[in-house]
Specification:
- The protein is an alpha+beta fold and 748 residues long.
- The protein is built from 21 helices and 17 strands.
- The strands form three sheets. Strands 1, 2, 3, 4, 5, 6, 7 and 8 form an eight-stranded mixed sheet that branches. It has a six-stranded antiparallel barrel with strand order 9-10-11-12-14-13.
- Strand 1 (162-167) and strand 2 form a beta hairpin.
- The longest helix has 26 residues, at 128-153.
- Residues 1-49, 365-403 and 721-747 have low confidence and may be disordered.
Length: 748
């Protein structure tokens, strides 16, 4: 046996090969950091402590050159492990990657451009000319993978520190494709090696191999779509030599604990992964083939992926399919083994998926009515491309045409309100962390109450950005929704809902050259939409951030007040669609009582084709799955809000898939009910009730829960009626709707 030092240190990556693909690469980072990446290999320690073992391993590498003999010693074992009709499931080779890991990688790579320019030949007949084309296509394919992954995860503008070269057999020299073709040795090549450029040695050596690619025409089993036993043995043959070369090298910068081997033909592909501790290799045997085979059987870890189609019938790779994702994942691991963890994680790249998805939904609805997005408008007052002079004073407000209107404390803003005429407001402060679209203000005529003032996007922005679309929802669409809610109340106010004070367009100082009352001139303020609402409050996200979780009494009050608002909206067939801590404010009413109120109604759902906002933390399961709301969606989001304000455990989500899994797991284990139950029995009961409704067509029985919550808050069941029912008793509900008693039967 070998000496006391490891040639490859304990391999966390081996024990759970795909787990570092959970998005953070933290585990992979810890694994790599334990190995040599600075140019001093752990094998140097091994060599100095056990020169005899080092020499023995080197001799094994020289003697182990006959692939047929190696295969004879291992093929039966591989066939048994690959047999699908075996009685023991434990005998099967497990895959290096899980489906969930590949899904996450697929989402992370949505915005990454992979392109194979040299198409893979599709003819079933392989001539010498086609053989050359296949190798050239394979080289281009591997280059596209390596280049794409490097620029996506490591350095966007730097060239990858790798290149491709081709060996004939383990220990042989490396050839470029052009040189192999010119020397007539193309058919002798065994495949491709992804080589590291790091190091000063100009001669190519096997310890520089980052990843090995076997390219053959007999990789698939005769009877099933899986790697044949012979090709798996061949992969293990090369894998063992690469591990030994890394271990024997004094300058290798590649992790020597495992190696990924891609196995491809001109249609299909799969991955074999070999890892293990070479200390346990018996070096005193007279038969090195038998010794290595026993080490692989008893001490190494072999993983074999399923086989899948890589190229379509036109010779183009199926980049988003299972087979190619397996190759991408293996290459990503291999690069990380050589160069350390990437600068960008899978999770950070996957975060853009939700934004792209929501943007796509908005793009798809550009052609719908005003319930979706602001219609496309031509800029008025000047032709496209015309140079417009702007007074120097204007640049203090907007640095360029189309910038957002930014206001300062004390400035007076005059609106043209079509219903009330001109209204003037004085800016008091910027709200919500200095957002340039949200201010507190007072009416110049009646400066007794603080108001909320929303500033929309200037209509000259012909290609609306994501931010401008958000402002359109905050101003124009919220104006429409609040008007609908006011009409439902026959014009009277509801203390649980924000109220429109004024809405219209900015009137700027100086002459206005607009041609029509609804038009605009070339002044950078002209036509900017404004919405003024009452009251002003502090978002619960800010409250929790400053003071920590709410008390049980405040959490119950928050639930009661929000439900009262949602009930009033539901009577107008309006669903909020964006319940989250930033959109619930705490205000002080005229009686100096605390009150919680849902605001930001711009993403409200008025009809079937409207889409809610998507929030990975607080959106309902139905919204994440379908992009639509069910009757209980707002109530489900309210439960997540309660969990947040009560200090419950809420994981940060990086994709819709993980968000849905978190919801399914929490509801199945009743984790949300348990956490809320530690603070309040009635909140636990309400969570149980919502659990029974989620995903169903049944409406929320607001009345019965408002009665119960009001009894908890005020000691009575009064005070939460509609605008015209204040001070009256809530009517006794005739009974619970389906699932009222809780029990968790909903679909998440």
């Amino acid at each position: 046996m070998m000496g006391s030092h490891h040639c490859s240190q304990p391999n966390d990556l081996d024990t759970s090969p795909g787990h570092s693909l959970n998005g953070s690469f933290r585990k992979l980072a810890s694994v790599i950091s334990t190995h040599s990446v600075s140019g001093t290999s752990v094998s140097s320690k091994f060599a100095s402590s056990s020169r005899r073992a080092f020499k023995g391993l080197k001799e094994y590498a020289k003697k182990l050159v006959d692939l047929e003999t190696f295969t004879e010693n291992l093929e039966q074992w591989v066939m048994e492990r690959s047999c699908t009709d075996s009685n023991s499931a434990e005998q099967f080779f497990s895959s290096p990657f899980t489906i969930e890991e590949l899904r996450k990688l697929d989402i992370a790579l949505e915005g990454v451009h992979f392109q194979q320019l040299f198409r893979m030949p599709c003819s079933p007949y392989v001539s010498d000319d086609l053989k050359e084309d296949e190798y050239l296509a394979m080289e281009d394919f591997l280059h596209a993978i390596t280049n794409g992954l490097w620029r996506a995860f490591w350095h966007k503008r730097e060239q990858p520190p790798f290149f491709l070269s081709c060996p004939r057999y383990p220990g042989s020299k490396f050839y470029s494709i052009e040189k192999a073709i010119s020397k007539g040795r193309l058919r002798e090549l065994s495949g491709f090696a992804l080589m590291s450029k790091l190091g000063s040695d100009r001669q190519l050596r096997w310890h520089q191999v980052v990843e090995f690619v076997l390219f053959s025409h007999d990789i698939v089993s005769e009877n099933e779509l899986k790697l044949s036993a012979g090709i798996i043995c061949k992969a293990l043959f090369y894998g063992f030599h690469i591990l030994v070369s890394r271990c024997l090298s004094k300058t290798s910068n590649v992790d020597s604990s495992s190696v990924f081997l891609l196995v491809l033909d001109s249609r299909y592909g799969g991955v074999v992964r070999l890892g293990g501790d070479l200390r346990k290799l018996e070096l005193n045997s007279t038969d090195p083939y038998h010794s290595v085979a026993e080490w692989i059987k008893n001490h190494a870890e072999v993983r074999v992926s399923p086989v899948d189609r890589i190229w379509n019938k036109l010779g183009n790779p199926n980049w988003g399919d299972l087979g190619t994702l397996q190759l991408l994942s293996a290459t990503l691991y291999s690069i990380a083994q050589c160069n350390g963890p990437p600068r960008k994680s899978i999770a950070s790249l996957a975060l853009d998926h939700s934004l792209r998805l929501q943007k796509r939904w908005m793009e798809c609805r550009l052609v719908e009515n005003e319930n979706a997005l602001v219609p496309f408008q031509e800029a008025g007052g000047y032709d496209q491309g015309e140079i417009v002079e702007v007074d120097q004073d204007d640049y203090s407000v907007l640095s360029k045409k189309g910038s957002h209107l930014k206001l300062k404390q004390g400035e007076i803003l005059v609106l043209d309100d079509q219903q009330q005429g001109q209204k003037a407001f004085q800016i008091q402060d910027s709200l919500r962390g200095g957002n340039p679209y949200l201010y507190s203000a007072v009416s110049v005529e009646y400066p007794v109450e603080l108001l909320t003032l929303y500033v929309g996007a200037h209509p000259s922005r012909l290609e609306p950005s994501w931010e401008d679309m958000s402002l359109w929802y905050q101003v124009q669409r919220q104006t429409k929704v609040l008007n609908i809610l006011k009409q439902q109340g026959n014009g009277s106010s509801n203390k649980y809902l924000p109220e429109i004070v004024s809405s219209g367009r900015v009137l700027h100082s100086g002459p206005c050259k607009k041609q029509t009352p609804g038009g605009r001139c070339d002044h950078p303020w002209c036509g900017t939409p404004i919405l003024v609402t009452s009251p002003v409050g502090e978002p619960v996200s800010s409250i929790v951030s400053r003071k920590g979780p709410l008390s049980s009494e405040e959490a119950v009050r928050c639930c009661r007040d929000c439900l009262a608002a949602l009930r009033s909206a539901a009577k107008a067939n309006v669903l909020h669609g964006d319940i989250c801590p930033e959109n619930i404010i705490r205000v002080i009413d005229t009686n100096n009582n605390l009150l919680y109120m849902p605001v930001s109604w711009g993403r409200a759902v008025l009809e079937e084709r409207d889409s809610p906002a998507i929030n990975l933390q607080f959106s309902s399961s139905h919204a994440l799955q379908q992009g639509k709301l069910c009757p209980s969606s707002d109530a489900e989001s309210l439960v997540y809000l309660l969990l947040f304000v009560c200090g419950g455990s809420m994981e940060q989500q990086d994709s819709m898939e993980s968000a849905l899994q978190w919801r399914e797991r929490c509801w199945a284990k009743r984790a949300i009910q348990q956490q809320l139950g530690e603070l309040s029995a009635i909140l636990k009961a309400f969570a149980d009730y919502v659990d029974s409704l989620c995903g169903t067509p049944y409406p929320v029985d607001y009345d019965i829960w408002l009665k119960r919550l009001s009894r908890e808050v005020d000691g009575s069941s009064s005070g939460v009626g509609d605008h015209n029912e204040r001070g009256k008793m809530i009517e006794q509900a005739g009974g619970f709707s389906p699932g009222t008693s809780g029990g968790g039967g909903g679909s998440h």
